[in-house]
Amino acid sequence: MVACKGVWTQPFWKAVTGEFLAMLIFVLLSLGSTINWSKKENPQPADLVLISLCFGLSIATLVQCFGHISGGHINPAVTIAMVCMRKISLAKSAFYIVAQCLGAIAGAGILYVVTPSDVAGGLGVTEVNAKLSPGHGLLVELIITFQLLFTICASCDSKRNDITGSVALAIGFSVAIGHLFAVSITTIVDIL
Fold first, then answer.
1. Dist CA 172 CA 82 (whole Å)
2. Which spans are transmembrane here (predicted)?
3. Within a 13 Å sphere around the CA of 157, how many CA atoms are in the beta-carbon half?
């Protein structure tokens, strides 16, 4: 029962709701940037820099907005890392991960509803480049996840007194950099 201490409090549910809403907004905006609005008979190539910046700046903005409410995890990998570092309880992490997954589904659902079917394409779904194995794709995902978690840990280290810039922006740039690196390995379906 100690693991569930504080679960039934208003701040707890505010934090869980924050994770849900942050993930909903992130998925809606970020995947929305992958939609190719050009005419079907003359499709334009995807602007990968624009898409990467949208992912990164969305995360930076949402971490800034929700960080004081929930910690601004907005990613199950971040939540799991916080459990491993004993920054949050296992019970809280379970609620966070469920909220993040439901928020992602809701964000994708809203995007699906508001996007005309003739331009929807894959709605940002990615797949491993056909020239590479799924193992390569997994390795790339592990590398960019490590890079993100390392940035978060380094930027949020309470023992550091030399951080004068925006932690949220550092995290956002980390997401954008990871996205730019991984885009050649995991391609966006129907727009490249």
1. 18
2. 20-37, 49-72, 93-115, 135-155, 167-189
3. 11
Residues forming beta bridges with residue 128, ordered by sequence position: 186
* Of the options 1.20.140.150, 3.50.50.60, 1.20.120.450, 1.20.1080.10, the CATH number for the domain spanning 10-188: 1.20.1080.10
Q: With H, G, I as helix, E, B as strand and everything else as coil, classify residue 46.
A: coil
Q: How far apart are CA 13 and CA 18, in angstroms?
A: 8
Helix (H) or strand (E) holding 65: helix 48-70
The residue with tokens 């609005």 is 37
pLDDT tens for each residue of 12-37: 999 999 999 999 999 999 999 888 77
Q: How many Å apart are CA 156 and CA 53, to the nearest integer?
A: 22
The DSSP bridge partners found for residue 106 are: none
Residue 74 half-sphere exposure toward CB, CA atoms < 13 A: 30
Q: How far is CA 67 from the centre of its chain?
A: 14
Residues 6+ apart with CB under 8 A from 86: none
The residues of the chain scoring below 50 in pLDDT are: 1, 189-192
Is 7 within 8 Å of 95 (Cβ atoms)?
A: yes
- pTM score: 0.86
First vs last Cα of the chain: how many Å apart?
A: 51
